[in-house]
User: Fold dTTP/UTP pyrophosphatase from Neopusillimonas maritima.
Amino acid sequence: MPEREIYLASASPRRHEILNQMGIQHRVLIVPPPPGEDEPRLAGESPKHYVMRTASEKSDRALAWIKHQSLPVLPILTADTTVALDDIILGKPGTYEEAKSMLTQLSGHTHQVYTAVTLAFNEQRIDILSTTAVRFAHLDRQDIETYCRTNEPWGKAGAYGIQGKASWFIEHISGSYSGVVGLPIYETGQLLKKMNESQAV
Assistant:
């Protein structure tokens, strides 16, 4: 476990809670988003490459923000979570209809949740990818509409939060539960361990 404090460059309360659970001292760093479309996907880009690139770009923006604001220099942890059904990326819904459409697509199918984590420190950068398969039960129209009225879908990739009421929908999960929540504990711990080993040299 690192003794140094780190930055968590994410506004996600779930990632903050997971770092607290891990016992990692950290400061939440809120970095202004870039102008234009939020995290656009490049033409022909796979979901895995997309999520890795997005986490890395968040790291770039966090490093630039720290320099611009003359903030203390600390290691920076960034992450991005993407829900993919085959090659289709299901982002954060912007409307009630989008949320219903995403949940309808996930109903009765197994999808992948990719969470990429990047750790930048001492001009070094290391990253890791967590991949988890999640199978949804068959949802009827009432299931979907009732869930959307809970307001849980908003701000979540794939329009659901596995740690909330959507847990009722999950038939099976293979991989990292915390990775689906937003920050894979094991993989994040491995990055922090590598940072410790590098600093000990």
User: Anything to note?
Assistant: Helices lie at 13-22, 47-69, 96-106, 141-148, 177-181, 185-200.
